[in-house]
């Protein structure tokens, strides 16, 4: 398990290693109510993550988007309203929704699935563009590599390979991933994180149009905001038009944004001419 994760839920063997205790001491602590016995062989310490506790108590482990959020990946809003559980080999999850991963199903050694396994589950639970953004986030943060994913997954089904081919660990934000995927699907030539002299590294470049994503994250930091202003001036001098979009905009306002991108890059000139003639 990722050592940064502290779900507070452990198998007995992990408990013994982590707290230098014995099986007898664990049983005594559970009987005394100091720790909670969730099901055979699994225990929760006080203050344990409630979602992970619920996943283990129901006979599985926290996986899919529930695990990915805990690993610190960018996950599009709207996925955390239910707990995503992967069933243990002999677990019973009667009547409880659980996620299925593609490919061979590994054991459940940890209360929170590792990133490759959680991503394999999430491939069925997320939209393709949201899943690609999650993979981008894992790659960008250096929490996983393509080689590790290949290693854990083995032979991936064509529909997963198709999504994986569209991932790019250079993406700095989920919104950037989604804009890139959408524009490439429309055959725009999109450069990712190119360096422009005097301006610096930009998120996306389509023709001469710079697309900066999620710039609102700079709010509250005057230094970063002023750096954006400086970059905008330099871009203007270099004749590089800039648009800025955030996730809310992409989610609710995409047709208008796309129309503007087409207008600025001129890719829609032919169609617009025909419409106006
Ligand atoms: Zn799921």
TrEMBL record:
<protein>
    <recommendedName>
        <fullName>Very-short-patch-repair endonuclease</fullName>
    </recommendedName>
</protein>
